[in-house]
Amino acid sequence: MARILIVEDEERIAAFVAKGLRAEGHQTTVAADGENGLDEALSGGYDLAILDIGLPRMSGFEVLDQLRSQGSRLPVIVLTARDSVTDTVSALEGGADDYMPKPFRFAELVARVRLRLRQAADQQGPAEDTLEAGGVRLDLRSRQATVRGEQVDLSAREFTLAQIFMLNPGQVLTREQLLDHVWGYDFDPGSNVVDVYVGYLRKKFGAETITTIRGMGYRFTP
Ligand code: CA
Q1: How far is CA 52 from CA 17, 36, 43, 81, 166, in A?
Q2: H-type helices in the chain, by residue range?
Q3: What ranges do the domains of the chain cover?
Q4: Which residue from 78, 156, 159, 160 lies 20 to 30 Å from 138 (Cα-Cα)?
Q5: Ligand 1 center to residue 204 CA distance, Å?
Q6: Can you name the residues that pair with 3 across neighbouring β-strands?
Q7: Crossing angle between the packed helical segments 60-69 and 34-42, to the nearest 10 degrees
Q8: What is the CA(210)–ligand 1 centre distance, in A?
Q9: Which residue has the higher pLDDT, 73 or 86?
Q10: What is the mean pLDDT of residues 184-196?
Q11: With contact defined as beta carbons under 8 Å apart, do 7 and 63 qualify?
């Protein structure tokens, strides 16, 4: 499952691509102009973008240029007219990872999406990039969390606490360990802040995901 941004102003094409990618198990978001597309792409909430060149407000070339000049390494597949070879060459020079000539068959697009996602995962090392267990997924770069595919909002402390649990699945973590890791020395060991935050995570992840081990601490059970 990946989060895919589709920047395409032709509703028919955007809907077709989005529907197909959702059927493949991905989450999709459509941006219908270049400015919106750039904002979304820079949000850090995506694993891949599919980018049309001919867009209102800002062309796909400009979007790509801005994206790369702001340091984003988001994999981008550019959609380009079949006859515009120059477009394609500039797109690749401008930092696109791949391109798809229009019109395209959906199967071709899916094959490229798979390939790009796999390459991105190989380069970044999925273990460093995301943590996934028991239906919970943490994106360590964008600091976003999903539970069974649904995005959930976590505060900075909740995110850090979730991260410690997910790095140590099945292990009992004491209150002191959690307090040290997440809160540093700001809190006295008698504080119940850990219990309170475990309660918050249970609400968001499901009560069964974190077990209380009486007299010891907590265990994350995927
Ligand atoms: Ca267009």
Answers
A1: 12, 13, 19, 9, 37
A2: 11-23, 34-42, 60-69, 85-93, 106-124, 126-129, 156-167, 175-178, 193-205
A3: 3-124, 130-220
A4: 78
A5: 39
A6: 27
A7: 30
A8: 48
A9: 73
A10: 76
A11: yes
Higher pLDDT among residues 19 and 189, named by residue: 19
State the amino acid at position 42 in one-letter form.
Answer: L
- Tell me what the mean pLDDT of segment 210-215 comes to: 92
The yes/no answer on whether domain 3-124 falls in CATH 3.40.50.2300 is: yes
Tell me if 84 sits within 8 A of 59, measured CB to CB: no
**Sign of the CA dihedral running 176, 172, 126, 201:** negative
> What is the bridge-based pairing of β-strands 3-7 and 48-52?
parallel
Q: Is the pTM of this model over 0.85?
A: no
33 Cα–ligand 1 center, Å? 9
Radius of gyration of the chain (CA): 21
| pLDDT, average across residues 110-127 | 75
How far, in Å, is the centroid of ligand 1 from the Cα of 12?
A: 11
Domain 130-220 has CATH 1.10.10.10: yes
User: Which phi and psi angles does 199 have, rounded to 5°?
Assistant: -60, -40
List the Cα angle 4/7/13 in 5-degree steps.
Answer: 95
